[in-house]
Amino acid sequence: MKKQFFCKYNILTAAVAILFFLQNNLTAAPLVLPRPVPLQAETIAHLKHAHANEDSQWQLVVFGFTRCKDVCPTSLGNLYMLIQAAAAENIAMNGTFVSIDPDRDSADALSSYTERFGSDISYLRFEGEELEQFKDNFGVEVVFYTKNAGNMENYQVDHSTTAFLIDPEGRIKVMFDAVKDAASIAELFKEKRELF
Predict the structure, then answer these.
(1) Bridge partners, residue 60, by sequence
(2) To which H or E segment does residue 73 belong?
(3) What is each CA distance from 127 to 87, 98, 107, 134, 153, in whole angstroms?
(4) Is 151 in contact with 163 (CB distance < 8 Å)?
(5) Are 38 and 31 in contact (CB under 8 A)?
(6) Using CA atoms in the order 47, 51, 55, 59, what is the torsion angle rounded to 10 degrees?
(7) Contact yes or no for 184/30 (Cβ under 8 A)
(8) Of 138, 139, 165, 163, nearest to 59 (Cα)?
(9) Can you give the pLDDT at residue 25?
């Protein structure tokens, strides 16, 4: 069982690494996983909690923070567009924004931030070890610059722009760059109906 977990974790980590290097290329490309990676039960429960009143459906997940000036608003705008594109193809889908900066992202700030991008996008906020474990389940890397005891407000954060498309069974089906790949994912909804 432990060996199987590490195998799945290594596959996911390798896929995230590939996407990280692809982000620097001029042309980005979504990664449709031939064998979807199942998420841990606790992770699935958190994602379902973010959309408690909704039936089982597809979910887009992206990580970021509310003080992000360009990447995160673009990512969430693209998530909104993808949710609309999925609805046009009769695919039930919602989105979840996971804060990587809980020291500055209060629940009120996250609620206000995600509301700007539509009611189908919710948020999750974790702290400490719970956040680290949640990020690890997706292989998300985050770097804080100049954050220290004397600077807890005006530090910079760097993170990957990888987004995850989770199927209704709680498995990562597609990984893509939330900034660059939105149009390609919208095309998947039309051209690869067998995926959905």
Answers:
(1) 95, 165
(2) helix 71-88
(3) 33, 11, 12, 10, 16
(4) no
(5) no
(6) -50
(7) yes
(8) 165
(9) 45
What are the C-alpha distances in Å from 147 to residues 88, 141, 154? Answer: 43, 16, 8
**pLDDT tier at 9, thresholds 50, 70, 90:** low
- Tell me what pLDDT residue 1 has: 52
d(CA 48, CA 57): 10
pLDDT at 21: 46
Does this model's pTM top 0.70? yes
CA distance 72 to 159: 10
Give the integer Cα–Cα distance in Å for 52 and 123: 12
Cβ atoms of 143 and 135 within 8 Å: the answer is: no
Supply φ then ψ for residue 18, to 5 degrees: -60, -45
Counts of helices then strands in the chain (DSSP H, E): 6, 8
Report pLDDT digits (tens) over 131-150: 999 999 999 988 777 766 66
- What are the b/e assignments for 5-23, b being 16+ CB within 10 Å? eeebeeebeebbeebeebe
Mean residue pLDDT across the chain: 84
